[in-house]
Automatic annotation (TrEMBL):
Binds 1 Ca(2+) ion per subunit. Binds 1 PQQ group per subunit. The lineage of its organism: Bacteria, Pseudomonadati, Pseudomonadota, Alphaproteobacteria, Hyphomicrobiales. The keyword Isomerase does not apply. It comes from Rhodopseudomonas rhenobacensis. The active site is at residue 330. Its cofactor is Ca(2+); pyrroloquinoline quinone. Keywords: Calcium, Disulfide bond, Metal-binding, Oxidoreductase, PQQ, Signal. This is Methanol dehydrogenase (Cytochrome c) subunit 1.
């Protein structure tokens, strides 16, 4: 932490600091209770399981055709709008792309802005941001003692802020990332107990990834650990990987790199977190190594591309499983972590973590000790690996799909975008099904050498992307899928194709429904059992966020961010024409501009468009 600026009076700061850390459990319990309520959506993923599942049934498979727009809100900004809004006790909190505005909207009077936070940022952050100027969301902390309820946010310029949830006033502000070396922030903060967990972005510029915990009341840094480097930097517990020593233990954060390459080796984490209060572990993934050109960094490059289980209070890692040693394809492993309690094939009750990875494999681990339970292909067209060896945990590579120098790797499936990317998926515990949004995209890859320069892109590869084998390569369509997956059997109950990538993720409800957005701008509802399309609505712009749902005054609503952008929309957003521009995205999504345009906001739906508003009565506003 380089600097911290607090928007508190000194007396208030002293009071906040005087509250013992042991009271954190109280705040955590309150957040858990709020997450259980249908009236609230208090964190990314809805709850600590991060399952995006709602038990509400007012909207179901029988009446979903009656969904109509109830109200909408424009953020007034372009670029991609990822993630989902929060709803807490009658207020919707909306985030945006750069310059990272935050709006608090009164659900009793839709569109009424209770407060807005419009920060001033260093415009230099724009030039070092990879793949559009997105932000993935907000976090909420319920307050305690003299500390009010807080909204936590990140900014592209590397700052983390706490805002008074009632007024929008800055409570504290701290610099987490240094944009001078290309380190930015796009991640949604994550609240556990009295801690705010924050990752980092910038592996494409050689940024060494880390995760940091801040005191939610003051912004003071509690701990920080890295993905690469000496064990003390990485934060390995004494019993690290004790249950699975074959995954690797001590000394590998430097030994699996050539020289000091680990210092500019990437492994940032900008995706989604999950937390288990029972194990007191939080779970996340570290991303791709830098540069993309694998010839420049021999070795397994630990601990990039790793699923981590860390102690929330100390930050020490209990386990780390590296999915793709020596990643050659930019398969940044930061995707969603979803927690479930299920019986395995032997009938043993297990506490599980399921993670659909960019490398085309969906992994399920025992979240108590990190043991690999299953590893199935996201699609049968994955061709970089034949399988994952469940005993060693290592994927079995197909040599011709490697990306070594003096070799152009062709028809590599999945592409660097992955068959799954940042979308936040859902899990239906009644059906034991995960509903996953898929990018059905392959690529050609040609590496080249380049020097490292701080604050400049450090990639070293030219990519061409196009639809996967099940798509329409001639017309650049068929770039996405939606799938229902059972992690125990490894089988897919159903799958459906889409014109464009399903980038944002899914929402599952007890009403037998799965909601999701498409890049060309549709919000869709399918039957959870069959995948049958039951309803769709064309949004004002493409969707790269995931739907959420809440109840207000007895009415169930479904809300979703809209605003095309992100990596797949980078060509449209920046008006790029070269098919290899945007790290290969422009060629794959060249048809997108014919289906949608930019513009961000939120749309909210209910049965028959019901909402908390009435016609203004004649004379209502006349002076007395």
């Amino acid at each position: 932490m380089k600097r911290a600026r607090f928007a508190l009076l000194l007396a208030a700061s002293a009071l906040a600091l005087s509250v013992p850390f042991g009271n954190a459990a109280f705040a955590n319990d309150k957040l858990v209770e709020l997450a259980k309520s249908n009236q609230n959506w208090v964190m990314p993923g809805k709850n600590y399981n991060s399952d995006n599942f709602s038990p509400m049934t007012q909207i179901d498979d029988k009446n979903v055709k009656q969904l109509k727009a109830a109200w909408s809100f424009s953020t007034g900004l372009l670029h991609g709008h990822e993630g989902a809004p929060l709803v807490v006790e009658g207020v919707m909190y909306v985030h945006t792309s750069f310059p990272n505005y935050t709006f608090a909207l009164d659900l009793k009077d839709p569109g009424h802005i209770l407060w807005q936070h419009k920060p001033k940022q260093d415009p230099a952050a724009r030039s070092v941001a990879c793949c559009d100027l997105v932000n993935r969301g907000l976090a909420y902390w319920p307050g305690e003692g003299s500390t009010p309820p807080l909204i936590l946010k990140t900014q592209l310029d590397g700052n983390v802020l706490a805002l008074n949830a009632k007024t929008g006033e800055e409570f504290w502000k701290v610099e987490n990332s240094d944009i001078k070396v290309g380190s930015t922030l796009t991640i949604a903060p994550y609240v556990v107990k009295d801690l705010v967990l924050v990752g980092s972005s910038g592996a494409e510029l050689g940024v060494r990834g880390y995760v940091t915990a801040y005191d939610v009341k003051t912004g003071a840094q509690k701990w920080r650990y890295y993905a690469t480097g000496p064990d003390e930097d990485v934060g390995l517990a004494d019993d690290f990987n004790k249950a699975n020593p074959h995954y690797g233990q001590k000394g590998l954060g430097t030994a699996t790199w050539e020289g000091d390459a680990w210092k500019i080796g990437g492994g940032t984490n900008w995706g989604w977190y999950a937390y288990d209060p029972g194990t007191d572990l939080f779970y996340y993934g570290s991303g791709n190594p830098a540069p993309w050109n694998e010839t420049m960094r021999p070795g397994d490059n630990k601990w990039t591309m790793t699923i981590w289980g860390r102690d929330a209070e100390t930050g020490k890692a209990k386990f780390g499983y590296q999915k793709t040693p020596h990643d050659e394809w930019d398969y940044a492993g930061v995707n969603v972590m979803m927690l479930s309690d299920q019986k395995d094939k032997a009938g043993k009750a297990r506490k599980l973590l399921t993670h659909p990875d960019r490398n085309g494999i969906v992994y399920t681990l025992d979240r108590e000790n990190g043991e690999l339970v299953s590893a199935d292909k996201i699609d049968d067209t994955v061709n970089v690996f034949t399988q994952v060896d469940l005993k060693s945990g290592v994927p079995v590579r197909v040599p011709e799909k490697g990306t070594r120098m003096d070799h152009v790797a062709r028809d590599v499936c999945p592409s660097a975008m992955g068959y799954h990317n940042q979308g936040h998926d859902s899990y239906d515990p009644d059906r034991q099904l995960f509903f996953m949004g898929i990018n059905h995209i392959c690529m050609d890859w040609e590496p080249f050498m380049l020097p490292y320069r701080a604050g400049q892109f450090f990639v070293g590869a030219t990519l061409s992307m196009y639809p996967g084998p099940k798509g329409d390569r001639q017309n650049s369509l068929g770039l996405g899928q939606i799938k229902a997956y059972n992690a125990i059997s490894g089988k897919y109950k159903w799958e459906k194709m889409e014109k464009f990538a399903v980038w944002g993720g899914t929402l599952a409800t007890k009403g037998n429904l799965v909601f999701y957005t498409t890049l060309d701008g549709f919000l869709k509802a399918r039957h959870a059992d069959t995948g049958e399309l039951l309803w769709k609505f064309k949004l004002p712009s493409g969707g790269i966020g995931y739907p959420m749902t809440y109840e207000h005054d007895g009415v169930q609503y479904v809300a979703v961010m809209y605003g095309v952008g992100g990596w797949p929309g980078v060509g449209l957003v920046f008006d790029l024409q070269d098919p290899t521009a945007g790290l290969g995205a422009v060629g794959a999504f060249k048809e997108l501009q014919n289906y949608t345009q930019m513009g961000g906001g939120v749309m909210v739906f209910s049965l028959d468009g019901k909402g908390p508003y009435d016609d203004v009565k004649v004379g209502e506003f006349e002076a007395n």
